[in-house]
Structures are given as structure tokens and as C-alpha cells.
Recover the amino acids of this structure.
């Protein structure tokens, strides 16, 4: 599942966009990689915020996000381990063009 929204267009032509994705944890492993694509952008310059939600609500073994990496219009991050069957929803808001 991927949702995309253009939040705003800046005066210099750059765009603030939102992308979200969900995935189900197959096995309780560490780490859990998540990639969020922002298709409205060709390139993400920087990430303004990352919001994470789990269903059912759960706690993380480590601080939720680490190893944030931007490649083109894809934002990847690594999450700590959580229980199998947990749905992780990640939302990223970024600036780019």
C-alpha cells in the first residue's frame, strides 16, 4: 500500500510531498527494513519527518528509526525488531523536486 500527496510547492519550485507504506512483519527479526517511495518527487533532498504506527500497538526493542537513507525518490530506514504479524505503517514527509 502506497499513498502519496503533494503537501505544498515552495517558491523555488521544490515540492513538499508525503508518502506512506505498510508491511506485515513475517518473523520477529531485527532489523525490519522499510522503504517508502515518494513518486511525486524525482529526488528527495531531505526528510522533514518520519511517523511510525504499529497494529496492534507494540513497543520496539530499540529506538524505532535508524540508518535513514535517501536514494532518488526512495527513503529507506531500518526499524528495531517487533512481533511477527505486526503491521508497520511508515509515513515520510520530504522535500525535493
Amino acid at each position: 500500500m502506497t499513498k502519496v500527496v503533494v503537501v505544498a510547492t515552495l517558491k523555488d519550485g521544490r515540492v513538499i510531498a508525503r508518502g506512506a507504506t505498510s508491511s506485515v512483519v513475517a518473523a520477529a527479526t531485527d532489523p525490519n527494513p522499510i522503504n517508502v517511495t515518494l513518486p511525486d518527487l524525482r529526488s528527495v533532498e531531505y526528510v522533514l519527518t518520519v511517523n511510525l504506527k504499529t497494529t496492534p500497538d507494540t513497543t520496539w526493542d530499540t529506538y524505532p528509526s535508524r540508518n535513514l537513507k535517501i536514494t532518488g525518490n526512495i527513503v529507506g530506514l531500518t526499524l528495531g525488531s517487533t512481533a511477527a504479524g505486526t503491521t508497520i505503517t511508515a509515513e515520510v514527509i520530504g522535500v525535493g523536486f
